[in-house]
Amino acid sequence: MTTRIVDSADVASSATVGDGSSIWHLAQVREDAVLGAGCVIGRGAYVGTGVRMGDHCKVQNYALVYEPARLGHGVFVGPAVVLTNDTFPRAVNPDGSLKAASDWDAVGVTVGDGAAIGARAVCVAPVSIGAWATVAAGAVVTADVPAHALVVGVPARQVGWVGHAGRPLEPTGTQGEWRCPQEGTTYRESEGAMTLIESPEENDD
User: Fold this and answer.
1) Taking residues 4-10, what's their average pLDDT?
2) Is the dihedral of CA 133, 138, 139, 140 positive or negative?
3) CATH class of 4-162
């Protein structure tokens, strides 16, 4: 697979870029960042020092992924999303001196496999976004998001569940069971968690 880094992108020599990845115009990938295979970093996006992301992630235009964020495989980060890294931000110390890197401890956002974060959403570190969850556009996430949860609003609140295809799950009529309207896969809700239990192929003779 061909890796593409356009001339106007700024990629540190110590960064690792996986096979088949593309880094587009004016994007910046900082020192010691690690990108898996087949990732796409859009125009003007920022990937901070030491950020880790798995294979086939998409970081869309002007998204800001600050260190030490950790992204699983197949994560979607929409346009102008911000993953923060400072719980108590200040430009200066109490004595008025400019803060240096040694004056604060960076904390990162963790995003599970297959999760999607919509345009202009903000995830306030150190939250975790569960696998296959969806954060709606414009949401502000201040608490952990369960796997497969759909969250919206400011602050973000859960309004439903989503499957691997990203479509909202629909109740089957059986207590605790949900189905994806696109794939026909079945999920079970138990104690605030959602788990894939059956796919259409498992029913084939």
Assistant:
1) 97
2) positive
3) mainly beta
